[in-house]
Amino acid sequence: MKLLPKDVSSYAKSPVFSESSIPVNLQKSHRTKADTWARIVILEGRLLYRILTPEIEEIELSPDMPGIVEPEVPHEVEAIGSVCFYLEFYR
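The structure corresponding to this sequence follows.
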């Protein structure tokens, strides 16, 4: 799993999403802007984080395993049963 660079700082946080409230745009290929990183924080349950390039990589996220989203890298998420999570954005 990637790590956030040491020189970035948090600037925004999403609402908490559940398996029934995950926005559709997070469930299909999307990307952060240049110089924008994200951290997927799981409060309960599990979430599949799928990185789409350069090769497809699937990572099962949990409260002990957050996801790090690199700038401009296409990705998507999928609930694995019941889940609660939010996103933190960094630049």
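The chain has a mean pLDDT of 97.
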